[in-house]
């Protein structure tokens, strides 16, 4: 595997391999190991054409714990915000000797373009592209679910997950549907019909418009961020009505099974898609998701960068 | 000095009959002539099909304004290479062709290039803004003699503006060529709305946005008893509406592009904007419906929607890229591949849909006269048994945004004659 | 291919190593056995069982994965990370015996010493190997050797253990020259 652009790039073995690696790495970091020499001398560029402090910091921490050199290109002040083409940026990265580029971009498919066009030879890691995918987030979500509910199994067979909210614009939802399905979990998408894409019927997921009827059936409730500006685009009448039907509040929390957990990729709109008391409740693993993010991203970097460059395998 | 004379020897006419053709000056002087013209240039076209010169009703020549992407001259060369003897210059240039000055300029540039006829299309509304009518009458009366009006690239969305335009052009038997795209349903749209767009996270361009406008426009056309041409139909639903309208006797014609006869929205999975086009590539079901409609005459013509773009506007992220594809040099091969080789259309059908019918819609009287004695000698010759590999690096167009790069296509256009003058000889533009 | 050690040979070698470890450290009390996955970890378990039998008390045993510390990662296909488990007492001030199957260039042990350094500061680190095939590239030696096997660099040594391979044996492949 050279790039991680989409969950579709992963086989079941690949996905479990990343989760297992992350498990070992998280144990090492529990043992207070700050730094591993694994990627010493390798250069990783964080190319963030769209603001996302948390994802950037998570990748940066992961790269540094593996002793890679990290260069940050952030949206503000970087050339891509000044209209420099993706091609020119890629050629610059190539000249800098980047072994991997972690790219966050507002345009769906930008990481794939970077990978396909041979402007640079390094690995491309999609850290969220437009409304397409966010594979590292899905992997850390699966890691978190497995840790809590996996009962020692390698995959997530039989686990039921509800993904609730703005599926239409969510790259987190797309990657999660693919990965959870790959790992054997069953996904129910819960959203107002306006926030489900035309064509969603072809996804390996059940569709529901009724959150209350789903909550008691699932092991995991994954809430998606709903952006305020969706209101002006007529996706729902107002925030109050959205919360009434699709917000996770204490009354709805009571409908969930005792073992069920609550997740959110962040950043949260407290009071809109999730009530503050729910976000901070004992059932919420939202803070833990952030911590797991570093181990999972270390595992991704390890899997993509540590071995011999693909095609040069001998032995 | 005597007139130039050519004899095309050994080819077959669109109806399949083997005939020799004698061209004297700018006209066809004999068909099935005994080849005893001592002073004629004999061209052996054995095995080839001789077609009346192809007429494109939908071409973006980019001049004036974007001469870095294409010029009237370079598009003329691309046209000659593809077997065309007439192009129709869409109005979305910079400045917009919404007055007599611009259309006459484009017309004269075409004449100066001299490789084919360039018929300017006038904008329906000033600046393509969809608000105030442009100087339609002045353009009709100009040297360019404009009969086709279109805001192509933009839809004439306001129903009142569309109604008035349809009414106004009746004065000189003009036609409104509509780019059918409901703007509110296609804000920020990137590709066909469906399974693929859902997966790729690219904003959808729903079929209904095209069909709703076609439906409205055929009803308006019926109401004011005018003439409508629907540009680049792409959906099975659009075909159904046009079929219904024709059955009702509404004066509507329609075109399909070569790329919509072959390519589907699956190609967007590459995120390569070479496949980004407006209207977007649709599904396999739509492709089949379009082929059937072109075969049964519901869709009247093939038009290229040739849309050159510089590499910068294609070597980028999908959503940043421009819409459009080259079409002139591959059009006839794509039609052979999708329509002739599949048995859906005869060469006679191709001649109608790519020469006679588009010339009639545009009222290009000097074009589309067919292969008859006395007709203007606009001719293209294709060898359907040969194949070629599309190479974007050696196209005649100034741009290289062909979606068919690397495709092996059937049918090599070997010769084009415009007014009796050879503009393409053995595949080389004169 | 030739058999360098048979099952009884391996068994005798491990018993001897167990005795040498006890002798050198004056008992099992302060010892931690750390096997290097995968086969070193199984050897560590066997040695710990032998020591327990001799001493009549349990000896601390764990395993130490050194993958993330290797300096040859880029030269081979990707390696899966194996578990690391350190006895809860930790390694601080203890006598750690690293256990591996084949001792070759010394780079694995170098990586193991680095990995160990991240975990704590033992009083001493010793090395036990089933087979020493020579060709060291680093100034590292073994304290306990099951058998010295002179080999040429082009040969390969395969250790099979019943826990993984269903049979105990050490094979040498390729021609000596
Ligand atoms: Zn158009």
Automatic annotation (TrEMBL), chain A:
A Pfam family of this chain: OTCace_N
Reactions catalysed: carbamoyl phosphate + L-aspartate = N-carbamoyl-L-aspartate + phosphate + H(+)
One annotated GO biological process: amino acid metabolic process
Key words, A-Z: Pyrimidine biosynthesis, Transferase
Gene Ontology cellular component terms for the protein in this record: cytosol
Enzyme class: transferase
Alphabetized HAMAP family for the sequence: Asp_carb_tr
Protein name per Swiss-Prot or TrEMBL: aspartate carbamoyltransferase
UniProtKB/TrEMBL annotation, chain B:
GO CC terms of this entry: cytoplasm
Keyword Hydrolase assigned: yes
Requisite cofactors: Zn(2+)
Protein keywords: Hydrolase, Metal-binding, Pyrimidine biosynthesis
GO biological process: purine nucleobase catabolic process; pyrimidine nucleotide biosynthetic process
Domain Dihydroorotase catalytic, residue spans: 47-235
Molecular function via GO: allantoinase activity; dihydroorotase activity; metal ion binding
Protein name: Unannotated protein
UniProtKB/TrEMBL annotation, chain C:
Database matches in SUPFAM superfamilies: PRTase-like (SSF53271)
Pfam families xrefs: Pribosyltran
Keywords annotated in UniProt: Transcription, Transcription regulation
Domain Phosphoribosyltransferase positions: 8-159
Gene3D superfamilies to which the protein is assigned, alphabetical: 3.40.50.2020
Family: Belongs to the purine/pyrimidine phosphoribosyltransferase family. PyrR subfamily.
Protein name: Unannotated protein
Species the sequence originates in: freshwater metagenome
